[in-house]
UniProtKB/TrEMBL annotation:
Protein name: Corrinoid adenosyltransferase
Quaternary structure and interacting proteins, as annotated: Homotrimer.
Enzyme class label: transferase
Family that this chain belongs to: Belongs to the Cob(I)alamin adenosyltransferase family.
SUPFAM superfamilies attached to this UniProt entry: Cobalamin adenosyltransferase-like
UniProt organism field: Ureibacillus yapensis
Length: 186
C-alpha cells in the first residue's frame, strides 16, 4: 500500500460521508486535535515509567480518545454513530481530582514549564484550548456536531494542567508562580 493517494492534490480531502476543502472548519478542528495527539505522544516519551505509570496509562487512553474525537468530527454520514462516550469525561474528572490532591495547593497562576515533560503537557493544554475553540466555531457554523467533543476537550485541558503540576511535584521541581498574580485559587 502506498502512503500517498494523490486525491488531495486539488485541495480537497475525504470525510466519512463526503469530501470538503482542506481548509474546511471540520478539517481545521480535527487537524488541531491531531496536532494535540502528537504533543501527547511527545509527553509520553518524556515520562519515566517507574515514576509515571499512572499518567502513561492516562495518556495512552487519551490518545485513543483523541482519535475518537477526530473521527466523530469527520463523520458527516446521515446515520452517525459516535465513538466518544460520556464515560471518558467522567474518567478524566476522576483523574483530575486524584492529581489535584497530589500536587501542593495552588494560590496563584503559574508559568508553564518546569521539567521537559511538564512543559510538553502545558503545550498540550494550550493546543487543547485551541482545538476547543475550533470545535466551538464549527458548532456555531454547522449543524450536527457532536457536543461531547467540546465538553471532552474542556475537561482535557484541566487534566493536562493537573498532570503538568504533578510531574513537577514528583520530580521535586517547584512551579514558578506568576509574580504579578493575586491569589486566584481558593
Amino acid at each position: 500500500m502506498k502512503l500517498y493517494t494523490k486525491t488531495g492534490d486539488q485541495g480537497k480531502t475525504s470525510l466519512m460521508g463526503g469530501r470538503v476543502r482542506k481548509d474546511d472548519l471540520r478539517v481545521e478542528a480535527y487537524g488541531t486535535i491531531d496536532e494535540l495527539n502528537s504533543f501527547v505522544g511527545k509527553a509520553i516519551t518524556e515520562l519515566d515509567s517507574t515514576v509515571f505509570q499512572d499518567m502513561l496509562q492516562d495518556l495512552e487512553t487519551i490518545q485513543h480518545e483523541l482519535f475518537d474525537c477526530g473521527g466523530d468530527l469527520a463523520n458527516v454520514m446521515k446515520e452517525r454513530r459516535y465513538k466518544l462516550q460520556e464515560s471518558s469525561i467522567e474518567a478524566l474528572e476522576k483523574r483530575i481530582d486524584v492529581l489535584s490532591e497530589e500536587a501542593p495547593p495552588l494560590k496563584r497562576f503559574i508559568l508553564p514549564g518546569g521539567t521537559p515533560a511538564a512543559a510538553t503537557l502545558h503545550i498540550a493544554r494550550t493546543v487543547t484550548r485551541r482545538a476547543e475553540r475550533r470545535v466551538v466555531t464549527l458548532t456555531n457554523e454547522v449543524e450536527d456536531v457532536p457536543v461531547i467533543v467540546q465538553k471532552y476537550l474542556n475537561r482535557l485541558s484541566d487534566y493536562f494542567f493537573a498532570a503538568a503540576r504533578v510531574v513537577n511535584f514528583r520530580l521535586q521541581v517547584k512551579d514558578v508562580e506568576y509574580i504579578r498574580s493575586g491569589d486566584v485559587f481558593k
